[in-house]
Structure formats: C-alpha cells, structure tokens
Amino acid sequence: MSASISVDYYTDPMCSWSWAFQPVLERIRQNYRDRVRIRCRMLPIYEDISQHTDPRHSLWGSVRDLAEHWREVAQQTGAWIDPGLWLEDPPETCWTACQAYHAAARQDRIVGDRFLLMMREAFLKRRLNVARMDRLGALAQEAAGQMGLDPERLMRDVKASWTREAVEEDRHAAAEEGIRERPTLVFEGGHRLVSGPYRLFAGVIDVLLEEKAKNVSAGEGGWTVKAK
C-alpha cells in the first residue's frame, strides 16, 4: 500500500492568483493522483463589494483598481485574464460562487472540483458574473452536459443554509491556521505554501510522501517510533 498525504487548498472561485496557479494544481493532480488528496476549502475575498477593503493591497479602492490588479496578475504570471468584467458587471459578492462549489461537491467531489474550475474560467476569461443567480444557473446548465451536474439541485442548494455554513466552516479553519492568502496549500503536519512554481510544491510533496512511507513501513514491521 503506497503512502498518501492530505492537503487543504484554500481558494476563492474569483481569485486571479488561484487562476494563475491552476496549471500547477493540475500538474500535482496528474503526477501524484491518489497519493495527494486535495480538499478544496473556500476563503471568500469579500462578502459585499461596497464594503471590501484589503490593507495589503493599497490600490484596491474601487472596481477600476480591481481591474488593474487583474491586469498586473496577468502580466506577472502569463495567465489569460480578462479584467473587463470589473468595468462591465462587477460581482457584488464572492459568497455565491463559494457556496456553489460546496453545492456541486455535495453531488460528487470530482464534479465539485470541475465545476470550481468552470466557474473560475467563466469569471476570469469569459466575463461571466457567477455571483448573479441567472448567470450561475446558465453555467450550471452548461455543466450538466459536460460533467453530469444536476443544475436544479445545485441552484436549490446554493441558497440553502448548509452551503453558507460550509463556507463559514472553511473560513473558521483558515482563521485558526492564520491563513489570509489565496491560494494557500496546507499539508499534513502544518506545512504550507502560498502559490509558487511546481518544483517548489513537488519538492515538499516528495519529502512528505517519503516520510509517510517510512512511517507506514515502520508500522507494518511491528514497531513504531515514539516521541521523546
């Protein structure tokens, strides 16, 4: 039995840095498969755009500044990002998309991960405001044909109290870990990385898998290492 590790991935469907990080995330999934179990956890950027502030980014004072921030992320990372949505139809909240992820994941974890990517791509590349229920509903209908998502069930669940509670639970976990950045990956044992190149994550994963394999072998051999 091969060793495996668990990872909590803190993100927001509308996060530009998470979109830029997507190729690294997909490479981790493809190369490590079941050896790295990734759980997505939602950390909304804001609940009400009219009250959104972030002291770490002094430029974030208006939707025009947010559009400029997206342009900067695109320039720094090479990710395909269209900032036009901020000038045409800025989303009032990030919570709708975060709750939609949990609604989709309740149907099936893999479907949830795929729908998260679909929302992110629609938002950052297609100028589709997934904070609006009509736009989200149209995207859910599109997903029904691509990944077997039940769109009617998703649209009911995104309004349910349990999806909001699920996001609240993720936010509480992030607060306990002191996590504020997106994307952040928290590995077993508390190791964490914020964005970065694939080789950085692969190096940490390889070390953790090697340590886990040694512990598994020790257990199978009939002895364990006790902390002093």
Brief digest:
The protein has 228 residues and is an alpha+beta fold. The chain has nine helices and four strands, in the order βαβαααααααββα.
Question: What layout of secondary structure does this protein have?
Answer:
Blueprint: E1 5-11, H1 16-32, E2 36-42, H2 63-77, H3 84-88, H4 95-107, H5 109-125, H6 133-147, H7 151-157, H8 161-177, E3 184-187, E4 192-194, H9 198-220
Parallel strand pairs: 1-2
Antiparallel strand pairs: 1-3, 3-4
Helix pairs in contact: 4-5, 4-7, 4-8, 5-6, 6-7
> Which overall shape is indicated by the principal axes computed on the Cα atoms?
globular
CATH class: Alpha Beta
| Overall mean pLDDT | 90
Under CATH, the homologous superfamily reads: Glutaredoxin
Textual characterization of the structure:
With 228 residues, the chain is α+β, with helices and mostly antiparallel strands. It has one domain (5-220): Glutaredoxin, CATH 3.40.30.10. Helix content is 57%, strand content 9%. It is built from 9 helices and 4 strands, in the order βαβαααααααββα. The chain has helices at residues 16-32, 63-77, 84-88, 95-107, 109-125, 133-147, 151-157, 161-177, 198-220; strands at residues 5-11, 36-42, 184-187, 192-194. It has a 4-stranded mixed beta sheet with strand order 2-1-3-4. Strand 1 (5-11), helix 1 and strand 2 (36-42) form a beta-alpha-beta unit. Helix 5 (109-125) crosses helix 6 (133-147) and helix 6 packs across helix 7 (151-157). The longest helix is centred in the last third of the chain and has 23 residues, at 198-220. The protein is globular, with a radius of gyration of 19 Å. Mean pLDDT is 90; it is low at 221-228.
